[in-house]
Holo-[acyl-carrier-protein] synthase (Ideonella aquatica), 135 residues
Amino acid sequence: MAVYGIGTDVCDLRRIARVLERKGDRFAHKTLGPSEWLVFQHRRARETSRGLAYLGSRFSAKESFSKAIGLGMRMPMTWRACEILNHPSGQPYIRLHGALAEWFSQQGLQAHVTLSDESDYTVSFVVVETQAPPP
């Protein structure tokens, strides 16, 4: 395997909170995929700050992913086509949908993501690798 791209992002949760105040759930709906939306609602219902941290971490990870694949936020990369989910162990992973999933597969890529958050910030790091050719 070889590194195809690396992306990182730091997100100020206070900025995300201000956007939510102005735009309400429209921002979250635009940013989150269907599975992420369910987790966001659940976490926010338990504690507002947990929902905010979840939304911020997903926003940050998608920014990192878009940088690592070299597309930025242009087609086929869209907010909702890229979901950052968690395995039962808690390890985050990236699930792609539609044209983005097709493009990513055609390129022979695989992605690794990590997330971390503190009281006012989340940070994400994504490494995208080319898959090894078959022997």
The chain has one domain: 2-130. Residues 17 and 49 are 9 Å apart (CA to CA). The first helix runs from residue 13 to 23. The helical segments are 13-23, 25-31, 34-46, 48-68, 98-106.
